[in-house]
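Lab manual, section 2.4: Encoding a predicted structure.

Procedure: take the sequence of the chain (382 residues), apply the prediction step described in section 2.3, and record the output as structure tokens. A sample record is shown.
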Amino acid sequence: MQLYTRLFECPKSSFFLLGPRGTGKTTLVRTLRLANHEVSLLDEETFQRYLVRPGTFYEELSSLKAGQWAFIDEIQRLPNLLNEIHRLIEDKKLRFILTGSSARKLRRAGVNLLAGRASTRYLYPLTPMEMGEDFCLNAALEMGTIPLVHNAEDKRETLKSYVQTYLKEEIQAEAIVRNLAGFSRFLPVAALLHGQTMNLSNLARDCEVGRPTVSGFFQILQDTLLLKTLSAYDAKLRVRERKRAKCYFIDPGLVRAIKRQYGPVTVEEKGPLFEGLIFTLLMFQKDTFDDFEDVLYWSPAESKHVEVDFLLIQGKDKIAIEAKSTDVIRPEYFKGLRAIADLKGIRRRMLVYCGQRRRVTQDGIEVLPFFDFVDVLRQRTL
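Recorded output:
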């Protein structure tokens, strides 16, 4: 199994580490070598003991010294333990690492989220910045880079199992939805919307469920950290902007597995998959290093066929990024980037593509091959 050094800045005080299943949260925490005590709530005996007597948790950890770390794995299985953790932080001055693959039960239970005493960090699938020369763009688009899948001998079977495990353990076992059949119909249709705006009414019709149900299904995907939404830029000025959000699954392989597509990536697939990969890398950069405040897309209402894939907000500055999966750049690819030039605060315009030649257009648009863009992210020079 190949272990990569994850790009992760460890907080000095208690924190949640959230990420989809199989992204290596437990492995990362153990490599940090911080924990003086470890509790796995995946262990059924441990889970049942604390479920029946949560006060036992406080008693057992009270022997730790002030400033020492405790690692609690899969905290979403028993969110009421956060009350005891809060007490231990206050009374014993302990520090906690709390991992989880779902934020849903923590929020829905209305439990004590440590009243701001713990920050939140996210773990993503492996990035090219972490994998270095081992990263292959075509392989990443075909099978993704979730460590559990990447390290498997049979990646195809592991991806199949990953989706099945998600349905069984995250959805059915935790009773998140009652209509599991409807959710199963919803998933492949939602995967078709990867990189597109979400029309909930049309999707509800296709899935044969109500619109509120579809909205709830999308929320489940977000809460279980498999999907993120991308909002439209709203200038809040005279120009009205589109409000409908786009959706992106967190990993290209996951999208394809949900659609049961396991062969080589087709031309039709490559565009949305490549765009989704760029989105994931931008979110990784934002959540890991706080290099920018927000990631949006730009699509002014008065120009129906003009759009820029990503608009990064850095204070008063803005960076516009267009993603193209082709090896050759065509003049029409610059349409959105040229239209956005007059938007106040635009500092940089970039077109990222799969070709090899780096250049700058006469009007200042940077044309970057994918791996040159990766270098920009690695060096944090956006």
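Check your result against the sample. The first strand starts at residue 15 and ends at 18.
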